[in-house]
Amino acid sequence: MDTHRTRALIVLILACIFLAACQQQSSNLPETGQTQCYNYWGLQVNCVSSSQDGQYQEGVDWPEPRFTVISCNESGPCSNTRIDCDSNPSTDAVLDNLTGLMWARDGNLPGAGLQWESALLYIDITTNSLQQSVCGYTDWRLPNLHELESLIHFGFNEEDCAGEPCASLAGWLEQSGFQNIELSLYWTSTAHINMLLSGTGIYMDMRNGDTLSNNMPPPCHTPSLYLLPVREAGSEYPGPYPAPPWVTGQQLCYEIGNIIDCEGTGQDGESQVGQPLPEPRFTDNGDGTIHDKLSGLTWLADPNCIGTNYPNAAPGPYGAGMFSWPDALAMVEAINNGDYPECSLGHDDWRMPNVLELNSLLYHQKEGNLLSLPPGHPFDVWNETDYWSSTSDAFNQDNAWRVNVQVGRIFPVDKDEEQAFLWLVRIE
Fold this sequence. Notes:
Blueprint: H1 3-25, E1 37-38, E2 44-45, H2 53-56, E3 67-70, E4 72-73, E5 76-77, E6 93-96, E7 101-104, H3 116-122, E8 123-124, E9 129-130, H4 145-149, E10 160-161, E11 164-165, H5 169-175, E12 185-191, H6 195-198, E13 201-205, E14 211-212, E15 230-232, E16 253-255, E17 258-260, H7 268-271, E18 282-284, E19 289-292, E20 297-300, H8 305-309, H9 325-336, H10 341-344, H11 355-359, E21 386-392, E22 399-404, E23 409-414, E24 425-427
Antiparallel strand pairs: 1-2, 3-6, 4-5, 6-7, 7-15, 8-9, 10-11, 12-13, 13-14, 16-17, 18-19, 19-20, 20-24, 21-22, 22-23
């Protein structure tokens, strides 16, 4: 082989190695699904120069169709999975072509709500099968928080449900192939972040995807809620799937505030399913920014840069650097215009992160009052807990999604009346 061909081959090999490394460093965060923009009154506005989620629509595109119904009987998939061979939707499954997760089609298999402990045991741990057969599979489980959150369409109101805009997340899921999704709360297998104080699991509201937990002491500590079993698609449906969820980080299991042996609990701490987190996850760029290898995003190292460097720009009633949502969006524009150089750091493409980008920073294993951020994170977080996202609430468009890094929760609040901090992000 001549010298020129050898050099060319070496360059090609090095390029492939570099590209592979880049691909390994970037997780496929999906887009939120929101394509429209709204002001603080909840009225739709032009997305151009709005700095909202609907303008950028960052993330992996959803496949079309997003979901595929797998028609089954009790023993397994029908010979033609497009035709329900037993005319019984409760034995069917739904494949998410975005994540590679397979869900029970029926959103109320038990026929009623269950307490968290009962919901975990509804899936028989000894045989790993539901107490009633769904498509013949024996590896169903209660979804962890990231898995259930992967079903959220943050722009469901933009979709058509029987000739009208979808009124809820539950309505959109049913329009997409699920059945009997209750307009109510659904359990995850992930324990509440302050489990030693509360003793319950995290649950999600099928109206809009709001995640909640119950801090009530026993015997009121665990309400009766619904469940939606999940499993991984397996080799019979190999994909590829562009955005599989990552692990929540939870490694312990609990019972009424006590740490217990995980074996046989069905809790998130036992299964620990999901894509692994990069190790190390964060890179300090040495210029006031941090690169996240999970998402491929670059964050300001100081999540309250304005409050730290320009406290008079946003004095706030609860601390410097807090804004209403419209004021936070206006501040992003000012930073990109160079008005606050200690925060722009020579860049003009900073933006407010969408709700999934902020949510990707949460880590669901901690005790006491520590922050719900990954161990050893390099961010300068002190007393700041609530951060705005650029994503509006599809259920009530005069609200926007906010992330609390203390309890590890995403939830919508009023855009104009509530205040939160501004954590800037960009893509290299």
